[in-house]
Specification:
By secondary structure, the chain is an alpha+beta fold. The chain is built from two helices and two strands, in the order H-E-H-E.
Length: 82
Amino acid sequence: MVSLSKSIFKAYDIRGIIGNTLDAGVARQIGHAFGLAAIAKGERRVVIGRDGRLSGPELAAALAAGLQSAGVDVIDLGVVAT
């Protein structure tokens, strides 16, 4: 697992280099943290989507797992327009 780097967090998104600053472990951590924040605001459901990059399915699955570990229901749209 890659350690969580502050450099991946941008003003409006999260961007990293697969295997360097971003991997499934990082996506799971982000999902868990976001899930806890959602629960704290009274939200019980989160919708996720991804683009067509090859890393998308693995990262989306890890993100969903992190969200679910926080107690959030996940609706995965799959590939969506970006």
